[in-house]
Specification:
heterodimer, A: alpha+beta, protein ne1242 fold, 4-stranded antiparallel β-sheet, 2 helices, B: mainly alpha, two-stranded parallel sheet, globular
């Protein structure tokens, strides 16, 4: 494996910053109940262009906006590859990706597919149990 | 010669040797390079749509090379160690000895999914998550939480019976053995379902943070070898060439500069399965 020492150093810095934020986030989270998982073996279908959402789900604010509606105030140079749709959990970006007709996934739930970014965001909240998403360089 | 064994058959000293080697590779900082390589591959694949590590035919040779490299690192610490495989069709409960405190430790606590026992518990002091996508510094699991069961042997046998390795368009949902085994012909199945069943870090793009990743993928790799033995006249890998945005048989697989699927077809120079 190539040795990414600079990235490891960066990750360590981000980890320290994030653990400070975790204290507040854990208090805001509520009890989580596992979503009923689809074991039918049918991959969710593509949904074309999903719209925006902004809601509080299990104590976490989740927001989603198509790339055309995003404000550049939130743009990170390092996340240019996620420009198709932007999801935030408590103001922090959850990278999501669309895979043709098979649906959406996120870095938190990479082995599943979701019909919409909203479903991906809600499942990430269930997964995190109060932890916060942390930005990273996708090309490290 | 490296022989990979079923984890259920390991002796107590064999389990300890494996765990100790993993902890030492972690202490040296090398383990996190593997986690980072996996995260980066996933991210680049998913943002470019050129699926090298997952959701395409090179899923199997890419992970074969990934495991060979990791096994080499373990063997620098202890030459007697190999990666055990976890047959999740047989050892398919939360009570399996795989999850005992003398091996990988058990499921996480309800509060935050934190693994609390065994050598990889954060409280044991040797397993901090450094390469991640979220703020969890501890190893997280919640076994059988998202999906109640692991894939049954009948699903594995159905995949093994398929005579074709992969087929156009060579991505998730393609017909053939690779997609069936990976689980991308029906999400929540097979390889993908096992990641989801373990939950916590195994569900994320930094899944190698959980050492069970290696045991899971050793079994997936064994099934590829088993499939080839069952279908000796089938093409061992497809596509053979000329396919845009897909790793062909003789294309190199990033991040390795010189490794092709062809190089990975015969595993026996590297290890065998017992």
């Amino acid at each position: 494996m190539p040795r990414p020492t600079r990235r490891q150093a960066l990750g360590a810095v981000i980890g320290v910053a994030a653990s400070g934020a975790l204290v507040g986030m854990a208090a805001a989270s509520t009890e989580t109940v596992a979503a009923e998982a689809d074991s039918s073996g049918i991959a969710p279908g593509g949904t074309g262009a999903p719209g925006s959402f902004d809601e509080v789900f299990e104590g976490r604010r989740i927001q989603g906006t198509p790339a055309a509606a995003r404000t550049d105030a939130h743009a990170h140079a390092g996340h240019a590859g996620h420009a198709g749709y932007r999801v935030l959990i408590d103001g922090r970006e959850l990278p999501v990706m669309q895979h043709g007709k098979s649906g959406w996934s996120s870095t938190i739930n990479h082995y599943e597919r979701f019909a919409t970014p909203l479903e991906a965001a809600r499942t990430a909240v269930i997964s995190l149990k109060g932890a916060v998403v942390v930005p990273f360089d996708p090309t490290a | 010669m490296t022989v990979r064994k079923n984890q259920a058959n390991l002796t107590a000293p064999e389990k300890k040797a494996f765990v100790d080697a993993v902890l030492e590779v972690k202490r040296l900082g090398v383990y996190d390079e593997f986690v980072l390589a996996h995260r980066t591959r996933f991210s680049i694949d998913m943002n470019t749509g050129v699926y090298v590590g997952h959701f395409g035919p090179s899923f199997l040779p890419w992970h074969r090379k990934f495991l060979i490299d990791f096994e080499n690192e373990l063997q620098k610490i202890d030459a007697s160690v190999s990666i055990p495989y976890w047959d999740w069709t047989a050892d398919n409960t939360v009570g399996s000895s795989l999850w005992a405190p003398d091996f990988l430790g058990g499921t996480g606590r309800p509060l935050d999914d934190q693994v609390m026992d065994g050598p990889f518990a954060h409280s044991a002091g040797k397993w901090t998550i450094n390469v991640s996508v979220d703020s969890r510094a501890f190893l997280a699991r919640q076994l059988a939480y998202r999906v109640p069961s692991l894939p049954p042997r009948s699903d594995v046998d159905a995949a093994l019976a398929m005579p074709t390795y992969d087929s156009p368009p060579f991505r998730d949902g393609s017909a053939g053995f690779r997609s069936a085994l990976e689980g991308s012909a029906g999400y929540m199945s097979m390889h993908n379902r096992v990641h989801t069943w373990v939950w916590g870090h195994m569900e994320t793009s930094v899944s190698p943070n959980d050492p069970v990743f290696w045991l899971h993928h050793a079994f997936v790799d064994k099934l590829w070898a088993d499939w080839h033995a069952l279908h000796p006249t089938s093409a061992e890998y497809l596509p053979a060439g000329g396919t845009t945005d897909v790793i062909d048989l003789n294309d190199t697989m990033p991040p390795w500069p010189n490794t092709t699927p062809q190089d990975m077809l015969d595993h026996t120079p590297f290890y065998t399965y017992a």
